[in-house]
Design brief:
Arc Repressor Mutant, subunit A; two-stranded parallel sheet; 111 residues; single chain; 7% strand
């Protein structure tokens, strides 16, 4: 994936409001690359460990965290989402309730 796409993914992920989630495919489509969900995953996987980007708000299309459930990264992502008020039902997030609609709230300046 090229640098331009990487930056578009970063900018799009940065817009996901607190307490909402987006799918990898949704991010890809927002960037003009429908069908490139895995590419979005690869971009997010390469983020520096202490990034301020809210990567934890990106999940798979089934409403699940796309990391091994026994990994530290999975536990961190789940913890961060729960701290933002996202509820899990048997390790799934109800996309109908929590999926970001793609709109930007200008009154929100910090994620």
């Amino acid at each position: 994936m090229d640098q331009q796409l990487r930056e578009m993914v970063w900018q799009t992920v940065a817009m996901i409001p607190q307490g909402k989630v987006a799918t990898y495919g949704q991010i890809a489509a927002c960037c003009g690359y429908p069908g490139h969900a895995r590419g979005v995953g690869h971009i997010l996987k390469k983020l520096p460990p202490q990034t301020a980007l809210p990567w934890h708000r990106v999940i798979n299309a089934r409403g699940e965290i796309a990391l091994p459930p026994d990994s530290e990264s999975y536990q961190l992502q789940k913890q961060r989402l729960e701290q933002e008020g996202v509820e899990f039902e048997r390790d799934k997030i109800r996309l109908r309730l929590y999926q970001w609609d793609g709109s930007v709230d200008d009154s929100v300046t910090e994620n």
